[in-house]
Write a structure and sequence with these properties.
By secondary structure, the protein is of the alpha/beta class. 32% of the residues lie in helices and 23% in strands. The chain is built from five helices and seven strands; from the N terminus they run βββαβααβαβαβ. Strands 1, 2, 3, 4, 5, 6 and 7 form a seven-stranded mixed beta sheet that branches. Strand 2 and strand 3 form a beta hairpin. Helix 3 runs parallel beside helix 4. The longest helix has 18 residues. The two termini are 25 Å apart.
């Protein structure tokens, strides 16, 4: 039993064959994110969900007490502007994430929004606030993780405000 108090976070990309999951040593992982729910920024619905609903990752990870997150991806300045500036699309995304987390009895979500423009800074905070509040109300103990830029060149990540809503930053 290698589990420690440290957070050791891994990703399982959808293109890795299912049988590879049997080779993972989940004892060394505190968390694993299933990559990914590819957002349609116009609607918040998934363009692709891949094998989230059928992946064997869950039973293996959960039997080893490794927390499982659904990774949500939205890449590009225009895609992030489209999604984050549209309240209905954000609400649809959050509602879908809650349903998908509940359906697989997952432990939370991982948000990987890349190239968020500074004009969406406030909407990004609003998104994380709404996601955090609604997810935790529906799934007690659920976590929100975020892949943030190593250097925020566009100044779009308001980290002091986001720390209220995001449990794990990396």
């Amino acid at each position: 039993a290698y589990k420690t108090s440290a957070v050791v976070y891994g990703y399982h990309p959808y293109w890795i064959p299912d049988e590879v999951v049997d080779e993972y040593d989940f004892r060394v992982l505190s968390h694993v994110a299933y990559f990914s729910y590819e957002v349609n920024p116009l609607t918040g619905l998934p363009d692709k969900l891949h094998d989230w609903l059928t992946s064997p990752l869950f039973s293996r990870a959960q039997s080893a007490l490794t927390r499982v997150h659904l990774c949500v991806t939205n890449f590009g300045s225009q895609a992030n502007t489209t999604l984050l500036s549209n309240t209905a699309a954000r609400d649809t995304l959050i509602a879908n994430l809650i349903r998908l987390v509940q359906r697989r009895r997952a432990d939370g979500v991982n948000i990987d929004f890349e190239s968020v423009p500074v004009a969406q800074k406030g909407n990004l905070v609003t998104f994380f606030r709404d996601l955090s509040q609604r997810l935790r109300a529906a799934v007690p103990g659920a976590e929100v993780a975020a892949a943030v830029p190593a250097v925020d060149w566009s100044d779009s990540w308001d980290l002091p405000r986001l720390t209220q809503y995001i449990d794990l930053f990396f």
